[in-house]
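Chapter review: from sequence to fold.
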Amino acid sequence: MDNNERQSSLNNTLCGRLLVEELVRCGVMDFVIAPGSRSTPIVEAIVRHPVATLHVVVDERSAAFFALGYGRRQRTPAVMVTTSGSAIGHALPAIMEADQSDVPMIVISADRPVELRHSGANQTYEQVGIFSGRVRWQLDLPCPTQYTVFEPLLMSIGQAVANSAHGPVHLNMQFRKPLGPVDIDDLAALCLSVDQGVFDRPAMARWLDTQEPFCRWYPSARAALLRGNTDVSEVLALAQRGMLLIGGLDDDEGRAKAHELAMTLGWPVWADITSGLRGTLDGAHLGLLDAALSGSDGLWSETPDVVLRVGGTIVSERVQRWASTASLAMVAVTPRGRRHDPFHGVTHQVATSLTDFGTILSSRQLNTHLSSGWTRLCERLRGHGLDVKASIVEHGGTDSRVALRLFEELPSEVAIWVASSMPIRLLDTFGFEPRVARDLTASRGVSGIDGMFA
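The token string follows.
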């Protein structure tokens, strides 16, 4: 086996091990296997795992109904694993029943690499979307390579388990030959053999050092804030360098609840320009955090230990990247559990309204006394942000100065619609007026420039 072939075997083996390990950590213990060669990395990981239970069912249709029966009886999903080609098609009747009856079920289909699709290659069919309209969630995962980042895979597995609570989900996983396996038992050693910097990333280091899921998913505020080892309020109470991030908010009720939450916590807070709260949070507000981070590499190493994130999309890529390196936890609260986490830093995802979350959280004992070092750093961030803004005002380009001039001189009662790309980024970076609330809106879902004058 040459170096390239060994690397492919390493990549596939690691992908399978990460998949099975995270499924088990998320409470999924039973795996129903319909044998086939392309699923070797997954099956090898199941066989090796000390807790996973393996059920071998030769016929794919029977295997799918076995998984369906398990989910119906236990109200927790079993995982059906198939090889590529027509194998996955035999799961359709069971998927239809799981869909109609809201039965928990996870189907994982191994697949050939994307370059073999539509080429006439043996045992290759368009498996992506084969159950569209019948599954609660689906994802096509690319072939693992030496450049694969582990965090998105682990986050996707937790998301699949969460979405399977009331019906089937489908993961399609591509593998390129040679399929492996590689005889390395220790998972951390296997990770290091593919990525030498894995322990330098807080989220992966935390995952490898514990037996906790990469991210815990909660269907409600009550589930997230129940007393116990995974109580979100207990996580928040650990904060010595806590920070509140407020994303986009569309209505006055959400803004009022976010403002109330900020006052309850007393933590440093940063509000996105589309939150409507940018200038209303007084001394605790790091309004120019994006500007501060853009002007100093040294401040990137000083990160929060616990982040609570509420609201929708955040414009600033810098702020999101910085917050995602929180050393202990990042808690995200969104009404329908929608992810706003492009850097995969969230450790606790709560699907609930700000109203419900704030109501239950207010009855818990929280740590509002943060470390003095963190308080001093936040003061430095505020000061540095003001310095960067002053420099832009004096020496910046025309676009920056025009955007700021308009933002600061338009009456506060005027509603502002901001175009995508640079206009919204410039205002998010430098638009901050103490004690002034701005009604500002932008299309940041997919950032289209169309419809501006519709």
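Two observations follow directly from the output. DSSP finds 16 helices and 14 strands in the chain. Residues 3-210 form a domain with the Rossmann fold fold (CATH 3.40.50.970).
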